[in-house]
Write a structure and sequence with these properties.
The chain is an alpha/beta fold. The protein has one domain (2-145): Leucine Aminopeptidase, subunit E, domain 1 (3-Layer(aba) Sandwich), CATH 3.40.220.10. 33% of the residues lie in helices and 25% in strands. The longest helix is centred in the C-terminal third of the chain and has 15 residues, at 96-110.
């Protein structure tokens, strides 16, 4: 298991071959969608916006949604984690340790060896290291993307 620091952006991450699984934060009071989920939404033909409009995604605290997306000839897998209301101080997940624990559950459920998280969502790298080291068996990489 390792933490891989990468300069991949949401665009380059979904266009490349290094990753097919991602965890992304969504805030209840960000409309239109902003940050990594907003950029991904743009590149993926408003997949997440359509889910918001239909009520499938709301961004409420504790919300956990699996969103599979076909992008060209590639299947992408997203774990969208609702974070409640975004604070005035910026995009920060409610609880980095809990966020990473959800990522670990997602990995175990689907068997992914690598999952991308976005630094812009405010996940603390230290929380990634300590949470994953304490809960993982076997090889597994979390890529912290820009």
């Amino acid at each position: 298991m390792g933490l891989v620091h990468s300069k991949l952006t949401p665009e380059t991450a979904i266009q490349g071959d290094a990753l097919v699984a991602f965890a992304v934060a969504m805030f209840q009071n960000e409309r239109p969608l902003q940050g990594p989920i907003g950029e991904l939404d743009w590149w993926l033909s408003q997949t997440f916006s359509r889910a918001v409009r239909s009520g499938v995604l709301q961004g409420k605290s504790g919300e956990r949604s699996y969103v599979p997306v076909r992008h060209g000839d590639k299947a992408l897998h997203f774990l969208v984690l609702g974070q409640g209301f975004r604070s005035e101080t910026g995009r920060h997940v409610e609880n980095s340790k809990q966020f990473v624990a959800e990522v670990v559950r997602f990995r175990k459920q689907f068997g992914f060896q690598k999952i991308g998280l976005f630094q812009a969502d405010g996940v603390e790298p230290k929380a990634i290291e300590t949470s994953v080291d304490a809960t993982m068996e076997g090889e597994f990489d979390i890529w912290l993307l820009t």
